Amino acid sequence: MQDTPSNWLITPATMAKIDADAIRSGIPGSALMERAGQAVAATALRHFPETLRFCVLCGPGNNGGDGYVAARALAGAGADVALFHLGDPDRLYGDAAEARRSCPLASAPLEAYRPYAGDLVIDAIFGAGLARDVPDVVAQCIEEVAAIGIPVLAVDLPSGIDGLTGRVRGAAFVAKRSVSFVGLKPGHVLLPGRDSCGPVEVYDIGIPRRIVEANRGLVSLNSPRHLRPHLRKASAADHKYRRGHLTVFSGPVLATGAARLSAEAGLRAGAGVVALASGGAALAINAAHTTAVMLTRIDTAGDLAAWLEDDRRSTFVLGPGFGDRALARSYARAILGSGRKLVLDADGLTAFAETPELRASLQGPTDGALVITPHEGEFARLFPALFGSGSGKLDMASAAAAQIGGVVVFKGADTVIAAPDGRVAVETSAPPSLATAGSGDVLAGIIGAHLANGVPAFEAACAGVHRHSQAALKALMPMTAEDLVRNIPPLDALD
């Protein structure tokens, strides 16, 4: 799978290791800090030309060191610069201490800063490494800056945003723009942190790519690159079953629409055959609303067993509008026990919320065969211990995937896709219009189509989530789930 720096998502702990390895390789830490601070100064001058006073707020670590370099560079360019520090600057050490010594400007305690119209705040207090609530003096400064509406340029991340989870640690600056280095951090893309960063410019500060690649881990931004290596070229010898068979289970007579949305999405997304498995009571209404989607009657576990006798029926979506929790558990176990692939969504997830442990309850090998798609409420019911642990969304999704031995799509405006082997991807392009009834049903069908096409589970989920977002971006507002199905982009049009 091809990767590029634009897809990198680097945790704070990983970034610290990358910095350390770069320094061990012979690159002076002071040189890295100099490039970072100069990038901050250049960004401030380029994007905030109306500024009357550049107010640089420096913290007690390397983020503060970047700020001292930026202050020196801005003063050298003739700007009016005011410099403020948190804590005792005489206790700085290493590269940050050297950066302060090299800065000719006197600094005042952070408590002395009074924001005025015409200021630009350059926030170099904490950056991505923050994992505790900000002290009161910083919270007070944040409040005063926000009250006057002073623009903020954040160095790495706005102070107060947890770089790993995106959570607000007591209080946080809301930046007009952020400057980061080497790659984005999780706090830039996870909510609510994402809403506090503004546009983020990522600068190369001279760390060799080999060092980043050796350390950066298994977390990345989601993109079509997850799917491309697994696409099968069309052939004149193709037939519908070669493109994959997807079965979607319908709910009862008054709840059939969700399953039809999934089925139609699966067909539109590229499955060769899609069958809607309906109980007898709902056959008539489903027959009246389906054309290219096939219809079959499945009322019992015995009917499903007969359906599974055909090996071509490889992939299933269970849950949208399904209703019957006991039957959902029975069907899920039968499908996975037969070695088939399953997307478990909505009522299918709720059916297992009453069980002590999802993987044990499924009673079958799930590695590579199971994708679950919970939103936050469903995740909390399925994994109460994880949800209540205080971990961030990345860690919760990863732990859940390892627990069930399948892929977890932890939905939201910052959807996280996690595999049991530790791979994680974060989708950042989802528009607010996806907050509409039936949207999740469509997503389940798209993922099911990719699984039916033979795409591995993690890549199928990543591609499904991205394609789902792109469909919403194409659809006109206001958007319904039916509009979403109609706008699923062809595979060769993904960007």
Kindly describe this structure.
The strands form 2 sheets. This protein has a 10-stranded mixed sheet with strand order 8-17-16-15-14-13-12-9-10-11, with helices on both faces. 39% of the residues lie in helices and 15% in strands. The mean pLDDT is 93. The chain contains 20 helices and 17 strands. The chain is α/β, with parallel strands linked by helices and 495 residues long. The protein has 2 domains: 5-217, YjeF N-terminal domain (Rossmann fold); 224-493, UDP-N-acetylmuramoyl-L-alanine:D-glutamate ligase.
Question: How do the helices and strands line up, and which of them pair or pack?
Answer:
Elements: H1 12-24, H2 29-47, E1 53-58, H3 62-76, E2 81-85, H4 94-102, E3 107-109, E4 119-124, H5 136-148, E5 152-155, E6 177-181, H6 186-189, H7 194-197, E7 200-203, H8 209-215, E8 219-221, E9 245-249, H9 257-269, E10 273-278, H10 283-288, E11 294-297, H11 301-307, E12 315-318, H12 325-337, E13 341-344, H13 347-352, H14 358-362, E14 370-372, H15 376-382, H16 384-387, H17 393-404, E15 407-410, E16 416-418, E17 424-426, H18 439-452, H19 457-474, H20 481-486
CATH superfamily heading of the largest domain: Ribokinase
Total number of beta strands: 17
- Walk across the major sheet and give the strand order: 8-17-16-15-14-13-12-9-10-11
Shape category: elongated
Which radius of gyration do the C-alpha atoms yield? 26 Å
CATH architecture of the largest domain: 3-Layer(aba) Sandwich
Structural class: alpha/beta
Helix content: 25-40%
CATH top level label of the largest domain: Alpha Beta
